[in-house]
Amino acid sequence: MLHLAFALLACAPDVTQDKPAADAGPAVPTAAAPPAPARAPGLPVDKTRSSVVAVGAKVTGSHELTFTEFSGELGLDGEAFVNVVAKVGVASVSTDSEKLTSHLLTEDFFSAQQFPEATFASSMVTPGGENGATHTIKGTLNLRGVSREITFPATVAITPTEVTARAEFSINRADFGVVYPGKPDNLIQDGVVLRLLLVAPRG
Q1: Domains in the chain and their CATH numbers?
Q2: Do the Cβ atoms of 129 and 136 come closer than 8 Å?
């Protein structure tokens, strides 16, 4: 049966295909993670026009995970994009399956009671990036009590009225302690796609 499951997994759609993979550094215990560098306050993200979505897959198909509770800031130095910070309440996740949504909150996945928030704080933003991105963002992602430095491409648009940042990249869930394999005949892929849209009004 297990051999059959692996054979099925090989045929399952890979949600990370054609998506840039975030370069991830070694894990650092959250308590030992260095403090984020001091920075000027950024422009608050407008939740009504922004979105935080993750996409995961198993043998039988994929699921979108939408988070409704989040906040963030996009920082400018003059007209240059220089930093981003974000915070997500993992218990606000919703999916197309009530059973899956409940399962995601348990220790198999987010362990939401123990680790209610996921956070990201950039440490460096450089112009240019993979697949035509306008910028490459480096910073610390904390998820499920594990902090790792990740690097990923983003596309940022700056106008007189707003700043918009878009990013779509994959991470390996096992890097953040999410190792639940799924059922033997319905194994879960390790790659998870993060799809971010952050819009911050100016003035």
Answers
A1: 2-201 (2.40.128.110)
A2: yes
